[in-house]
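Tip: read the tokens left to right.
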């Protein structure tokens, strides 16, 4: 058994090597690592970080797809007391620049290219002064704390350190020096900063200590995960879902990971069949593709269950389809600020509960549903705003004290902004978001952030973004734009000027031009009315003055 109060992320690989040394821990693209070999790679990475000058508490941004090096960094950073800042691989130049600067990262570790995506080129665009300074001593306007850029898979950028050079530098670091750094890490030290979109503009960095590891460990025990399990790991490691529910849970339970750098449903199912996978994971977009791929060419699978956060009316239908095609599902609710799966299905739950609810609370969490107007607690089956309090909630938003105070009240309750209700059986039902937030393929997307980007374009006077239903992604962004007189904008040009500048899931799928945006007497845009207009447009009605 693990000591739940003393868990530190950097200890997990070494403990895994002690418990399960010769058992396979990871496979990727034909390569395989035992738990012992995995721990060795983590230590090589950790020593390299020390050699390149990373100090305890310093932040290191990681921008790469699901690669073994991502996992080695995940644990290596924690072992030396540094803070992991995972970056979304769908970020583009502007997104990248904001997150690296706002987090005050001292190092950025980036993948040069993944298929057609040229990350190195975007880095050069975001940081045009990389030629200044020298490796390990960059001098970049706008990034005063960024000293080191490490590149994996190519090194065409000036003053970048190749990944092999980081590992080579670590060979001079003694085992005792690494052990001393690891011993100095406390469970309450910051472990990770997860960037998530808010409702008021730029993304916020959600700060977590090592304490939430306990929640992941208890979930592994609840779902009886152990060395007999094999997880398919195609959900992004930068996302809390992959970070906690696959990468971390595997290290805690002795389960194996089958890692893929990107998600392709057919490839994932082929590997699941070949490797004897027992657990699949995914949001709506993953399951939409997995169901289609299995229907087109059924595979013979050996699944115990799959995880799929259900509860909303639309997700209940998908959960039923997953059950029919792949077997039982495990539902749950969580968010970056509270950790994942704060509520979770039990193995004894019925199919109806797993499809129509979001599970019951995990141990030592407090949840309540409150009336947004009165603050009174709502009775069973009455929806309201979900509040959460527990040991795994965030320490705060990085360098954003006002936003932190707005989300965490004086009594320690996290105001989630989500609408939910409790069923008579004690199961939570997630119903949607009170906050003005979109959910695009499992990614939280801030309309305010997209609106700010649109209004920065020449010719755009005003912009408002709402969500439109999407069969695959659950929701996509749609923009209503008021253009300057004579600007001559059209839908194609607005969308085209967003592509390559912001992450693809933030780019509006449609742009409708209007003479004005509906607003309240205080000047706030009435998005309820815009959603009504959008429904009419989607039903085939053409709005006067708009594009169809």
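Filled-in amino acids:
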């Amino acid at each position: 058994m693990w000591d739940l109060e003393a868990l530190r992320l950097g200890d997990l690989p070494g403990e895994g090597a002690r418990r399960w040394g010769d058992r396979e821990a990871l496979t990727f693209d034909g390569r395989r690592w035992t738990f012992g070999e995995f721990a060795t790679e983590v230590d090589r990475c950790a020593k390299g970080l020390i050699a390149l000058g990373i100090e305890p508490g310093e932040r290191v941004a990681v921008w790469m797809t699901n690669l073994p090096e991502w996992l080695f960094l995940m644990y290596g950073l924690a072992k030396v007391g540094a803070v992991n800042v995972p970056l979304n691989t769908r970020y583009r130049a502007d997104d990248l620049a904001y997150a690296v600067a706002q987090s005050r990262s001292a190092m950025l570790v980036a993948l040069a290219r993944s298929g057609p995506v040229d990350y190195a080129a975007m880095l050069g665009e975001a940081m045009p002064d990389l030629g200044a300074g020298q490796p390990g001593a960059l001098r970049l306007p706008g990034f005063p704390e960024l000293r080191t850029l490490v590149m994996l898979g190519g090194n065409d950028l000036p003053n970048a350190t190749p990944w092999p050079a980081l590992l080579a530098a670590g060979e001079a670091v003694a085992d005792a020096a690494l052990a001393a750094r690891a011993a100095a890490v406390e469970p309450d030290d910051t472990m990770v900063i997860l960037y998530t979109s808010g409702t008021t503009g730029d993304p916020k960095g959600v700060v977590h200590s090592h304490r939430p590891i306990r929640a992941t460990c208890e979930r592994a025990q609840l779902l009886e995960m152990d060395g007999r399990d094999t997880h398919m790991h195609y959900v992004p490691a930068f996302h809390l879902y992959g970070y906690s529910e696959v990468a971390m849970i595997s290290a805690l339970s002795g389960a194996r990971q089958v890692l893929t750098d990107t998600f392709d449903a057919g490839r994932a199912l082929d590997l699941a069949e070949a490797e004897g996978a027992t657990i699949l994971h995914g949001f709506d977009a993953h399951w939409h593709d997995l169901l289609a791929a299995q229907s087109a060419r059924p595979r013979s699978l050996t699944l115990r269950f799959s995880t799929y956060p259900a509860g909303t009316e639309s997700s209940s239908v998908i959960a039923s389809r997953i059950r029919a095609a792949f077997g039982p599902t495990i539902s749950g609710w969580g968010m970056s600020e509270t950790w994942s799966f704060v509520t979770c299905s039990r193995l004894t739950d019925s199919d109806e509960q797993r499809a129509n609810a979001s599970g019951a609370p995990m141990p030592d969490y407090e949840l309540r549903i409150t009336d947004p107007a009165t603050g009174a607690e709502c009775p069973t089956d009455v929806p309201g705003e979900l509040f959460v309090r527990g040991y795994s909630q965030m320490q705060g938003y990085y360098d954003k004290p006002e936003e932190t105070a707005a989300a965490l009240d004086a009594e320690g309750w996290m105001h989630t902004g989500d609408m939910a209700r409790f069923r008579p059986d004690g199961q939570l039902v997630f119903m949607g978001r009170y906050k003005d937030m979109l959910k695009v393929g499992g990614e939280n997307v801030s309309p305010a952030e997209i609106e700010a980007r649109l209004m920065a374009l020449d010719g755009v006077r005003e912009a408002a973004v709402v969500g439109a239903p999407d069969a695959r992604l659950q929701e996509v962004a749609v923009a209503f734009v008021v253009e300057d007189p004579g600007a001559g904008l059209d839908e194609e040009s607005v969308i085209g000027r967003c592509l390559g500048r912001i992450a693809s899931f933030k780019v509006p799928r449609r742009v409708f031009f209007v003479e004005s945006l509906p607003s309240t007497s205080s000047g706030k845009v009435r998005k309820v009315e815009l959603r009504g207009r959008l429904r009419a447009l989607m039903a085939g009605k053409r709005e006067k003055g708009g594009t169809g």
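The radius of gyration is 23 Å. The CA atoms of residues 438 and 445 lie 5 Å apart.
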